[in-house]
Amino acid sequence: MTHGMRTDTHSPHLGGDRDWRDTATRYALVPLRLFLGITFIYAGLDKLTDSAFMKDSGAGSIGDMMRGVRDSSALPALVDMALENPVAFGYAIALGELAVGIGTLLGLLTRLAALGGALISLSLWLTVSWAADPYYYGNDLPYLLAWTPLLLAGAPLLSVDAALRARRRQRTGEYR
User: Fold this and answer.
1) Which of 5, 25, 64, 131 gives 20 to 30 Å between its CA and that of 55?
2) In angstroms, rounded to a whole number, what is the distance separating the alpha carbons of residues 93 and 142?
3) How is residue 57 annotated by DSSP?
């Protein structure tokens, strides 16, 4: 039995012959960035503009929500820490979501924004949606996993990060 040997030594990316699949591969993270960025901006603004949410107690408040999930969360100590000042915690989450969303949408410090998004999603999964049964009914776990590609790859295209990287390369005379 004979095995064929590849004679081409580079991918189409290096040779310049790009088809639609190569282009789609290069831009694959852009829809994810748009979705996560817009969603986190919306979530942050929704919290900041909801007068009932940013209260210690009452229907729809951050305080009542945290008290309601305390005993069913994976980390009750984390909930207890948030309950020391639920309004400040609510503002921290909302402002964190805004910063993560803006950074992701613009592609500015994308890996850092993705880390922030993953940490917010992880904390919400371990507290608020931990008791979801079956587990896949809780939406914070898929968000946590959705941040992973951006954490690993950043925003190589259509981003402030890419523009800054290109500018640095141009100044140093570096190509590619």
Assistant:
1) 131
2) 18
3) S
pTM here?
0.83
What distances in angstroms separate CA 129 from CA 66, 126, 144, one per listed residue? 11, 7, 12
Rounded-to-integer distance, Cα 53 and Cα 65, Å:
9
Whole-number Å distance between alpha carbons of 125 and 141: 6
Contact 27, 157 (CB under 8 A): yes
* H or E stretch at 167: helix 160-172
Reading the block at residue 53, the tokens are 């949410």
Place of tokens 């949408």: 105
| Neighbour count for residue 68 (Cβ, 10 Å) | 13
CA pair distance 29, 153, nearest whole angstrom: 9
Q: What is the pLDDT of residues 106-118, one digit of tens each?
A: 999 999 999 999 9
